[in-house]
Amino acid sequence: MDWHEKLDETRKGLRNLNGAIPETAQAFGALGKAVKQGGVLEFKQKEFVALGIAVALRCEDCIGLHVEALVRSGATRAEVGDVLAMSIQMGGGPAMMYATKAMECFGQLTR
Question: What is residue 30's predicted lDDT score, i.e. its pLDDT?
Answer without folding.
Answer: 97
